[in-house]
Amino acid sequence: MSQNEAGPILNGLPTNLPDIDPAETAEWLESLDGVIDAGGRNRARYVMLKLLERARERHIGVPSLTGTDYVNTIPASREPAFPGDEQLERGIRRLLRWNAAIMVHRAQRPGVGVGGHIASYASSATLYEVGFNHFFRGKDHPGGGDQIFFQGHASPGMYARAFLEGRLDENDLDGFRQEKSHFVDGDLRALPSYPHPHQLPDFWEFPTVSMGIGPLNAIYQAQFNRYLHNRGIKDTSDQRVWAFLGDGEMDEPESRGALQLAANEELDNLTFVVNCNLQRLDGPVRGNGKIVQELEAFFRGAGWNVIKIVWGRGWDPLLANDSEGALVNLMNATTDGDFQTFKANDGAYVRKHFFERDPRTAAMVKDWSDDEIWRLSRGGHDFAKVYAAYKAATEFTGAPTVILAHTIKGYFLGKHFAGRNATHQMKKLALDDLKGFRDRVDAPITDAQLEEDPYRPPYLHPGQDDPRIQYLQARRRELGGYLPERRGDRKFISLPPDKSYDSARKGSGNQQVATTMAFVRLLKDLMRDKSFAPRVVPIIPDEARTFGMDAFFPTIKIYNPHGQNYTPVDNELFLSYREAKNGQILHTGINEAGSVAAFTAAGSSYATHGEPMVPIYVFYSMFGFQRTGDGMWAAADQLTRGFMIGATAGRTTLTGEGTQHMDGHSPLLASTNTSVVSYDPAYGYEIAHIVKDGLRRMYGEQPEDIMYYLTVYNEPLVQPAEPEGVEVEGIVRGMYLLKEGSFDGVGEDARRAQILASGVGVPWALEAQELLKNDYGIVADVWSVTSWGELRREGLEADEKKFSDPFGEHTRTWVEQKLDGRPGPVVAVSDYMRAVPDQIRQWVPGSYTTLGADGFGFSDTRAAARRFFHIDGPSVAVAVLQQLAHEGEIPQEWATQAYEKYSLDDVNAGTSGNAGGDA
Questions:
Q1: 646-656, pLDDT tens digit by residue?
Q2: pTM of the full predicted structure?
Q3: Residue ranges of the Transketolase-like C-terminal domain (predicted)?
Q4: C-alpha angle 429/435/441, rounded to 5°?
Q5: For residue 11, what pLDDT is reported?
Q6: Cβ proximity of 189 and 246 under 8 Å
């Protein structure tokens, strides 16, 4: 479209609106022409930008300004006075820079060589230290303290600060990345590589090094803080979430995917600090572009407040004298690739390849020496600029803030590090680098000390009486204590009484109810307990009706910090869609990644807030561990507790949905996460016992840092009442005898078999039990396996003990205890791939055959799908016959004839399972 044509305004209103006052419009246009004619284009541009800025402030509805010049958002004239002691803080930063780098360097000593990252913290030390000394509030602060998501690769800096504070000593630092091997006087003294609460639970709060997870979790942490406040559980009004991120990390979809949530909910308790050192791991983030400008437009477009810290104070007089905008234009036009190259060279190079691109800018520095040009710094290394940005961020209301700080990767470490592509992989300093670095930090270390053992330069700690350390300690006392710090259980909740589980244990009578609905009904019963109910945090993506959870809408309501400012279309219905400021349900929309982040924030609230909450995240099982497994690993690292409910589970149960909806493997994926306790229950009473035990383990007197994963199905069936004398221990441990085979009508010498089944496969096992007895006089016992994974874990633990003591006395595994002495072959079946029941193979005595739904799922009836995969009742029966024939217990003809008798090759002959797909 030609620039002269009328066209749409980006994200705004169309230009063809009626002009209700043409004369006034003409006056405005004439005024603009007058500004251009009198003051020039730059003056007119400035006025237009100010008008757009004011229009946004007054909520006119025109597009917001998505891009500004490549200069600081806060001009020098509006910077507040820096309140700290500049000299002491500079001295602290130098101590920290040295110790952080030397810790990584010493970890490369001969015989260790475990690596580490030097450059990330070097580029962000000022960003952190301004926060530590002036903004970050510890847990003893009257307001409750801030939550800081530290950039993963910057962990050496946090360890270095804890060393100065006296929380860590040299032995701890020398144990960096040696978590199982570094012993001092018999005690293990080690530090994990990155922020890992699981590994260092008194120190780290949030795992962030799986990039993209940190920014996503920070947004949902800020939301959860408001959630606690609006529900009246805790006053979090004075708590702030800070997330320190890398510019390369912002390419992760998770880093940007929830920005609109933060803006929509006006999370002005959230600040992102993006360390824009222009480099990712292998090279520039945007060599041909400008990542700061790109991120500014993206965040502004999402509704965030954006503050850029591009240039240090040395640039202020140059910019103040830039009356023609030549310097700003040069800054705007220079690519990130060139800016990176500048800092890998020297002042003469910068003069020639930057300032001399325009004779006007060349004239600005013609009287400057090359060293003076070289000392021009980037904004992220200027404590006064950083302080101004942080202060503005904490005072801004109505939207979250992102601070884009221009820095240099490897800053302060010397010419071999600063701005180099290989900086991220550099883990040690050459002797000349050490000497140069020592000189820059003014360390009292001699050449002889460095030359004596270049792999072990000394750490620097001037003692607690040093003015720098006293200043550092005083600032942390005033701000509420040390950070990072994690505190564990400080409060316990009252768990529901036994009677809350009675309904689930009684079954469903004659009504057919899927286990998904059985779980939802149990949840309703649990939430009748008035002391327990407020602690529950239901989390649902956009599938509440699929899971039968829409009944919660009018009662506990959906959380929305703005309430419900519209009349819902189903307003007159009993189950109307209801949002409220104090709503209890976190309804995240079509957003599984955000749901896991919300689950993590709620499930770790016992530590971050001292308020134990019980998140219950219900989701399509296929979209759990497969789609958001990395988030679940981060949840485990954060020591999260709660229930994850994989609904509509199974490969053949969710009829009609097709390949990407059919879950035939999530129990396997869950088994890879050590913190996840996974169950595949068949009946509502099993769910009741599992949930009760899960609440005890996660929220009882001795809480464990685990998460429960239950797969539940949408196939309706009659939920039986709990059998009298049922083995509850077996339900919890993973396997119990559900229905022993009957000898009625057959002789006591009948052939025997054992059938193991889980979840929706249990009815097929019971069907096979009947077929085997009625058609072949074979007596089979049916076992309900509630958890293949827990049985396997117990077996592996037993094997490890035997490996350490191979000839000692050992307790048999639960599988061995239950199946020893039980005659006949063992056949196992589930609605998952065969690898799921294969998990316990090595502990099953005798022959063991597994059936499963291997391969892709597909759309069809349940009966046809099960016949196709050979996992239905007749298929289980034939598998038993085949094994008995192999063992010589029955004629081979029985197995062959049965295969034909039940038409196992005919998918249309299958009858196992109910039609329909309602939960």
A1: 999 999 998 87
A2: 0.92
A3: 734-872
A4: 100
A5: 38
A6: no
